Amino acid sequence: MAYHRHIWQGGPLIVGESQDEETMTILSPCNHKDHVGDLVMAGADDVETALANATDWMATPVAERAAILRRASDLYEASFGELFALLAREAGKTAMDCIGELREAVDFMRYYADEAERLGDQPARGLFACISPWNFPLAIFSGQISAALAAGNGVLAKPAESTSLTAHRAIELMHEAGVPRNVLQLLPGKGSVVGAILSADPRIAGLCFTGSTATAQTIHRAMAEHLAPSAPLIAETGGLNAMIVDSTALPEQAIRDILASSFQSAGQRCSALRVLYLQDDIAEPFLDMLYGAMDELVIGNPWEFSTDIGPVIDAPAKRRIVKHIEAMRSQGRVLKELKAPAIGTFVAPTVLQVDGISDLEEEIFGPVLHVARFESEDLDAVIAAINGTGFGLTFGLHSRIDSRVQQVTSQLHVGNIYVNRNQIGAIVGSQPFGGEGLSGTGPKVGGPAYVPRFLKAQTCATAVPEGTPADPSEVQKALDRAAKRSAAKLNTLALPGPTGESNQLTRFGRGTVLCLGPSAEDLKAQAMAARAAGCWPVTVDSEGADVAGVLAPEHLASLTKLDAVVSWSGETHLRALRVALAQRPGAIVPLICDCDLELRLHLERHVCIDTTAAGGNAALLANVA
Q1: Coil, strand, or helix at residue 271?
Q2: Residue ranges of the chain whose pLDDT lies below 70
Q3: How far apart are CA 199 and CA 51, in angstroms?
């Protein structure tokens, strides 16, 4: 299978490849012998050609766009065999994972088509760059693109290099369904080339990214320097995810869900379980059952229906995971390890002992489960440690005590919480997915706030602020005072799901919001909107503000306890503010210059509960410690 271009130049689709272009041979990670296909890598000239000829999709009414996306979803389903083969051979997906991924991709297209029709014809932002990962080369790739298209944007899609053949076939099907070729273009290539150009070209009106936190920060800095200050970065950046299993949990259910959460997809899901907190009272027999269940797992060729776990994506990924396991082995921390095939990039599912989540400095993206023990009276300390990582993507809890469920879920700063079930495989429309802090910017994919982020927002640019400089130490004191208050819970929406499952999407205030005016009227309006959104505003600049004077943009790089910045100043000043914010380490702090602040000042958290998992009269366990 050879890749052919999907770059529009005002005539027929360019097909073929010149002799001087860089090509990449794709071999299956299962054995590194199966030749899946050859990829022509896009270069700087290709990116310029795509940008020069790109257009948005606003000329097509929203109903017609929605119909085309639904037609594309039908073509996906009709092409299931071909797509399954690509996913298995190129990405090492098992049959179960292939089915789930196709289902999610189709659900995204249909859900976003419905959402676009619900919102009606509204202005799009223009051109969106979509940069997607290799671990969900069909679902995340299609989800990003279809949301942008549903809103009427043009899309330049940059897939992960190692899974670009899957992306190529998906683009073919979207074009076949009726998406114009100058509206949707494929730019496979190196991130250092294609990604770097797209994130720094002012013709790009917004960027959607799924990948590492470090890469998201690099993209954010480039966007701050070159794109419009209002250009959104919609980023999902992984997590260091935990699960707590207490002494009231049903072992069979918990172990089933631990196996799926830790080892399905060879642990290569951003939602995967990384650290299991196991109550010490039940630890020994529970771990014996877990090890026995692991022994039943089949590791091998993902094309075989009997296979449970396939390979990791490539040799560098395997080396990173094995290096971590070997470091832990040298400390005597390996509790259980299966055997993996010698050929291919397989990593054996492994259980490692840790004292807590703080032992991990980074996410180990593979089939590795870390186990820590805890005493019942230390539960609040465990929750604090999980929050202390700064990540906030998924969390799992197995308990049959309602008060304990409430105790845990009310304290966690996590985007998706799962109770008495596994913590992977979020369902579009039922379990909107996405985190906070180091785990992403929001809004949640597959949820009601996602497509609106791709629509053009009205900005309130006014004059550049003038006046005496504000004292940054006084600003920090005001932020410290505001940060002592908890963001408010706003409202909860019950979402559809199967019988026996509760899905609740709750909006919270984002936290501490720095309001920079520039006028007294602007500050008053910003502070009022922040309070209405459950946030705590700190106002700087005019008479009657918390801190008098004009805050120099460079101070935003070092101020702490800051969750968002609002300013309606002119574009040059806004750019300086965003550049300073982009220099911050850690979580990406948004600069909000929209006139309507409501949606931008919210966080979304979702709780999914398997209500059938009580397994008996849970009231009898009310006093169990």
Answers
A1: coil
A2: 1-20, 614-625
A3: 12
Instruction: Note whether 127 and 204 are within 8 A (CB).
Output: yes
Q: Backbone dihedral region of 500: left (phi > 0), alpha (psi from -120 to 50 degrees) or beta?
A: left
48 flagged as catalytic: no
The single residue listed with the structure tokens 């790109």 is 54
| Structure confidence at residue 441 (pLDDT) | 97
- Give me the pLDDT at residue 14, please: 37
550 DSSP assignment: B
Question: Catalytic site residue 554?
Answer: no
Residue 2 amino acid letter: A
Rg of the chain on CA atoms, in Å: 24
CA distances from 413 to 394, 562, 604, 616 (A): 10, 15, 10, 30
Both tokens assigned to 548 = 């008098």
Strands (E), 124-247: 127-131, 154-158, 184-186, 206-210, 233-236, 241-245
- Sign (positive/negative) of CA torsion 120, 126, 127, 133? negative
Contact 581, 573 (CB under 8 A): no
Q: Give 431-477 pLDDT, tens digit per residue.
A: 999 999 999 999 999 999 999 999 999 998 887 788 899 999 999 99
Is the omega angle on the peptide bond into residue 188 within 30 degrees of 0, that is, cis?
no
pLDDT for position 508: 96
The predicted pLDDT at position 598 comes to: 87
CA atoms of 355 and 8, how far apart (whole Å): 55
Length of the chain: 625
Torsion (CA) 215, 217, 218, 223 in degrees, nearest 10: 120
Which of these is catalytic: 270, 515, 535, 593?
Answer: 270
pLDDT of residue 18: 40
Longest CA–CA separation in the chain, Å: 74
Q: How far from 151 is each of 52, 125, 319, 450, 484, CA to CA, in Å?
A: 21, 8, 41, 10, 39
Q: What is the DSSP letter of 191?
A: I
According to DSSP, residue 193 is labeled I
Residue whose tokens read 């379980």: 273
Q: What's residue 5's pLDDT?
A: 53
In whole angstroms, give the CA distance from residue 610 to residue 234: 30
Pairing mode of beta strands 547-548, 536-541: parallel
Which has the closest alpha carbon to 566: 535, 540, 592?
592
How is residue 92 written in tokens? 């090492």
Helix H or strand E segment including 374: strand 368-374
**Cβ 91 vs Cβ 181: under 8 Å:** no
In terms of DSSP H, where are the helices of 295-444? 315-329, 379-388, 402-411
Amino acid at 250: L
Helix axes 379-388, 402-411, angle to 10 degrees: 30
Model pLDDT for residues 28-40, shown as the tens digit of each residue: 999 988 999 998 9
Catalytic annotation, pick one of 90, 101, 104, 236: 236
What is the per-residue pLDDT for 74? 98
Q: Please, which residues bridge with residue 27 across strands?
A: 35
pLDDT of residue 542: 72
Place of tokens 């907190």: 277
Nearest to 265 by CA among 91, 444, 401: 91
> What amino acid is encoded at 26 in this protein?
I
Question: What burial class does residue 292 get, using C-beta atoms within 10 Å of its C-beta: 0-12 exposed, 13-18 middle, 19+ buried?
Answer: exposed
> Could you write out the DSSP letters of every residue in 241-254?
EEEEE-TTS-HHHH
Q: CA 401, CA 399: separation in Å to the nearest integer?
A: 6
Give the start-end residues of each E strand in 10-126. Answer: 23-27, 35-40
